[in-house]
Amino acid sequence: MEKRQQLYAGKAKSVYYTDDPQRMILHFRDDTSAFDGERMESLARKGMVNNKFNAFIMQTLEAAGIPTHFDGLFSDTECVVKKLEMIPVECVVRNIAAGSLVRRLGVEEGIELNPPTFELFLKNDAQHDPMINESLAESFGWATPEQLAEMKALTFKVNDVLKALFADGGLLLVDYKLEFGLFDGQIVLGDEFSPDGCRLWDAKTREKLDKDRFRQGLGGVIEAYEEVGRRIGVDFG
């Protein structure tokens, strides 16, 4: 496969065309951002760690019957993915209260949520990814009711698979966000799953092992990502 011109560069990833019109290359950079890009930093090895972490998770989900855009690794920092028509709605599941939920509702961090909560957010950097609902998504044409129902079902299936995977590694899956798109008319999991887009705590100590280490200035960001990966079986090579 031949890598061609860049299509898009986000805060931490870049997307490239290939010689296959149905495939793209996703490049994980060492860049790290927080607070809507107000804080930016380059962390050595981050691109490689997130690329291989994401590959492991996507393959795990595929094995569980969840369709993803992941096709395979292209290099240490790149993977080949299906070209999706992205749906501009993020699906967020929370198993434990943390982050914006704590700030928004004034609840205590660490409360277990039973059942887990499900929220929708519009992918819009200029508006800081505002929270929305199914009615707004349908009215503005961001997603159909059928698409939203399938996205919700897949998001909770991901929760079942990954909560068990991380629990086996002595970890708590606190919360996470997912993005979906269409490939040949099918809803498919897109973007990435890495410690950049979820919260992971040590099950015994509740030590934070995710991007909150960067947000909160705790240090050891990549070391924490690698620790999580090793616990669940990721081979960083």
From TrEMBL:
Q: Which GO terms describe its molecular function?
A: ATP binding; phosphoribosylaminoimidazolesuccinocarboxamide synthase activity
Biological process GO annotation list?
'de novo' IMP biosynthetic process; cobalamin biosynthetic process
| Root EC class | ligase
Q: Which organism is it from?
A: Franzmannia pantelleriensis
GO CC annotation, single = cytosol
Q: From which domain of life does this come? A: Bacteria
Q: Which reaction does it catalyse?
A: 5-amino-1-(5-phospho-D-ribosyl)imidazole-4-carboxylate + L-aspartate + ATP = (2S)-2-[5-amino-1-(5-phospho-beta-D-ribosyl)imidazole-4-carboxamido]succinate + ADP + phosphate + 2 H(+)
UniProt protein name:
Phosphoribosylaminoimidazole-succinocarboxamide synthase
The similarity comment for this entry is: Belongs to the SAICAR synthetase family.
Q: Does the keyword ATP-binding apply?
A: yes
Is the keyword Coiled coil assigned to this protein? Answer: no
Q: What is its EC number?
A: 6.3.2.6
- Domain SAICAR synthetase/ADE2 N-terminal: start-end pairs: 6-231
InterPro entries cross-referenced by the UniProt entry: SAICAR_synt/ADE2_N, SAICAR_synt_PurC, SAICAR_synth, SAICAR_synthetase, SAICAR_synthetase_CS
**NCBIfam families to which the protein is assigned, alphabetical:** purC (TIGR00081)
